[in-house]
Amino acid sequence: LKEKSIFHTLNLFRYNLSAKTFIAEGWCPDDELEKVTYATQMATQRSGSAFPVVFKAVPTTKETPPTYFRTNKFTQAHQEIVDAYGVAQYQEINPTVFSIITFPFLFGVMFGDVGHGIMMLLFVLFLIAREKAFMKEGLNEMVQTCFDGRYIIVLMSLFSIYCGFMYNECFSVPMAFNGFPASSQYDLTPGQTHMTLNDEGYRYPFGVDPAWKGAENELYYYNSLKMKMSVLMGVIQMMLGIILSGLNARFAKKPYDFWFQFVPQAVFMMSIFGYLCLLILAKWLMTWDDVIEDTNKAVPSLLSTLVNMFLSPTSLSGDGASEEIYGAQEGIQIFLLVIALLCVPLMLFPKPFLLRRDHMERKGYGHLIEEGGEEDGEGGFERFEEDHVVEEFEFQEVMIHQIIHTIEFVLGAISNTASYLRLWALSLAHSELSTVFWEKILVGALEMHSIPSMVIGFAVWGVLNFAVLMVMESLSAFL
């Protein structure tokens, strides 16, 4: 196998008949030139050949070097995940730098539970402690996959613990850190179905108040909270990607990409989904009791507000509910809608026509140089061939590519924002499953007041926690 790989590599070389040598060209980082030189010298000495291996750095400016990101055992798995979706071009910002944190953090949002996070952390710490031994041993496919991503799982487990503290859940059981029952700060009279804050204005100091656990409106509260959080996180991450594309265009000195791709994309996102995020924050910060009493209407629905922003931008009234959240909302929404619609042709038309204009100018300049070359002699014409090669340009291909890119962005902005709702869905599913296992199995077994039932109940609860939540749910959140 080793000889086969050697001959396969030699087949990529170019053979020089006159010198009877093999010639190979490749790319190498500048700071690795000394290592390559040393390796060629050692190869010559060990082979005992009379013909030494000659290594020479060839400067080039015409070809774009391939992308090379230096990694270590901590960042390698992160880089492989990013490369599976796409590799950045030469000198572009490496998105892995950001995904090292964002990827495990979003996992923690979906898998947030202190108990399950600690179990995952103990498992991965065992893999790291036995790292050298496992590298020598052969592992089965599933364990090998976990071992290769052990440093990702470390961050995933830590963020799961952190989000578990934010959700105030440990195996679905709420934790009170203030030293007294949080429910005493709330008014819940007989016959009342919704728990409300008392007149003292108490606020729980850290994370979600444990009083929500067991309340009649518990699911409604967590459902609303996690849904809005997922939208906020999704829009922030998508805007980060758009900003990185703008920085890449600025660094590469591509003004058309910057002004007619980055700018309209950022304005489009902020005028619609950035506005939605501001509405979410505004709705969180406002008190709606007085509004409901004065208008006798329900609290505005942000989903209806966003949909009616497109379907009926001149009306803020819904079915039995007023969609007005602040003053002058109708005029501002119409203005933002017009700005978003204007960004679509700005992304679509200017760049292809400007590229066509630049191509025609270069093509005309090429004809002038060619005529000058014919008058001045063959040498001038050769210099033009080397330094002023006019690349082929197909306007139809560029236009079609721009149309596809624009449609993909506009539709992707909507679909990607909706796809971030899986943060809400999986987080809610994880919490509800954990609650069902705790209350129906473990607590149910303890209420039997029988030692065998307690042992069996704990065993069943542990198996279901491991198989369903630690394996199936973690894999679902990871993917």
Automatic annotation (TrEMBL):
Transmembrane regions listed in the UniProt entry: 105-128, 149-167, 229-247, 259-282, 332-354, 450-472
GO biological process: vacuolar acidification
Membrane topology category: Multi-pass membrane protein
Subcellular location: Membrane
Entry keyword set: Hydrogen ion transport, Ion transport, Membrane, Transmembrane, Transmembrane helix, Transport
Protein role: Essential component of the vacuolar proton pump (V-ATPase), a multimeric enzyme that catalyzes the translocation of protons across the membranes. Required for assembly and activity of the V-ATPase.
Homology family: Belongs to the V-ATPase 116 kDa subunit family.
Entry protein name: V-type proton ATPase subunit a
Classification lineage: Eukaryota, Amoebozoa, Discosea, Flabellinia, Dactylopodida
